């Protein structure tokens, strides 16, 4: 977990979008977010990728990259691209040990999002954002403003895909790898992920799914995982059913009464930021409305780091982690 408090995450601001994302070497649509050099395009370039209602075009592999949000930072590190990174921001939880040294080599520009001025001081030629709030027009970091400064941008496609599954992860990795010319590394990561998914699937064959309520945070309402993000697919592959999988949002606020009425058998806490899982657990156990839910009566709880519940490089590990907690006898 971060050593400094992280402000309220931007996820509450970035709920639905329904724009398809496709990869192409040429494209049309909204104005392109282009990184261009002084010379002719590099071999195999330019690359143009349709991205969440815009286009990302690069004439060569970007060399000065800033990542905004942890899950996209980890994509860069997993692709072996830390030497291209001149800044990162917005850590939600601990960086996995296999990426810790690489992460330590990258300057941290801000605990949350950097200002436009701080971002420009890093002199990036490319900004990779994890959530739509990374490119907040009202804070000066909008994609058009960055394009005007000669900076290409790319947004994680979980924010705009109609349906988000593990196939979305494959597309995301291939998109980013194509931009940087490291396609082989992306295929290695995809092969590793699919091997993990296949192993879990084999172990859970014939296992009865359990109903799962995600608790990202809880106060007067429950901030939970809806059906539009990858969370539902992770839970399903791990032998569960997201009780709010019918909600057409990545994340959604639901009432305590609604949460209790879905009779969850397991509560899955997302772990991040300044509020610990133990604090969330105590809040759930103290709530009289939730008291009758099977998960609360049996104190059947599971935990997942927030970054593992997003489109990134933790998908195989996330499914394994959830499955081991939902169905320990299968492992």
TrEMBL record:
Tell me which positions the record assigns to the signal sequence: 1-32
PANTHER family to which the protein is assigned, alphabetical: IRON(III) DICITRATE-BINDING PROTEIN (PTHR30535:SF7), VITAMIN B12-BINDING PROTEIN (PTHR30535)
Name of the molecule in the record: Iron complex transport system substrate-binding protein
Q: Which family does it belong to?
A: Belongs to the bacterial solute-binding protein 8 family.
Residue ranges annotated for the Fe/B12 periplasmic-binding domain, each copy included: 64-331
PROSITE patterns recorded: FE_B12_PBP
Alphabetized, the UniProt keywords read: Signal
InterPro entries per the UniProt record, alphabetical? ABC_Transporter_SBP (IPR050902), ABC_transptr_periplasmic_BD (IPR002491)
User: What Pfam families does this protein's entry cite?
Assistant: Peripla_BP_2
Q: Which organism is it from?
A: Spinactinospora alkalitolerans
């Amino acid at each position: 977990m971060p050593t400094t408090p992280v402000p309220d995450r931007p996820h509450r601001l970035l709920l639905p979008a329904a724009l398809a994302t496709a990869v192409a070497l040429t494209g049309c649509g909204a104005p392109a977010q282009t990184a261009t050099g002084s010379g002719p395009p590099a071999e195999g370039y330019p690359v143009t990728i349709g991205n969440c209602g815009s286009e990302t075009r690069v004439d060569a592999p970007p060399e000065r990259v800033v990542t905004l949000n942890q899950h996209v930072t980890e994509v860069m590190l997993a692709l072996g691209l830390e030497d291209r990174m001149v800044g990162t921001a917005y850590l939600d939880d601990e960086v996995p040990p296999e990426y810790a040294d690489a992460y330590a080599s990258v300057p941290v520009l801000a605990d949350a999002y950097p200002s436009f001025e701080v971002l420009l001081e890093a002199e990036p030629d490319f900004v990779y954002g994890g959530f739509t709030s990374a490119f907040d027009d009202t804070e000066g970091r909008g994609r058009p403003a960055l394009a005007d400064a000669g900076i290409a941008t790319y947004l994680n496609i979980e924010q705009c895909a109609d349906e988000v599954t593990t196939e979305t992860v494959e597309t995301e990795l291939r998109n980013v790898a194509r931009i940087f010319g490291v396609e082989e590394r992306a295929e290695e990561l995809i092969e590793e992920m699919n091997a993990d998914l296949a192993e879990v699937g084999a172990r859970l064959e014939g296992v009865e799914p359990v109903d799962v309520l995600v608790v990202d945070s809880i106060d007067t309402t429950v901030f939970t995982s809806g059906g539009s993000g990858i969370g539902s697919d992770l839970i399903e592959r791990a032998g569960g059913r997201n009780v709010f999988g019918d909600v057409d949002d990545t994340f959604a606020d639901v009432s305590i009464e609604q949460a209790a009425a879905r009779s969850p058998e397991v509560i899955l806490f997302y772990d991040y930021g300044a509020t610990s899982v133990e604090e969330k657990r105590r809040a759930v156990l103290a709530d009289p409305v939730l008291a009758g839910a099977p998960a609360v009566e049996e104190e059947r709880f599971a935990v997942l780091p927030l970054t593992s519940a997003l489109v990134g490089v933790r998908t195989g590990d996330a499914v394994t982690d959830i499955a081991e907690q939902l169905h320990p006898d299968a492992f």
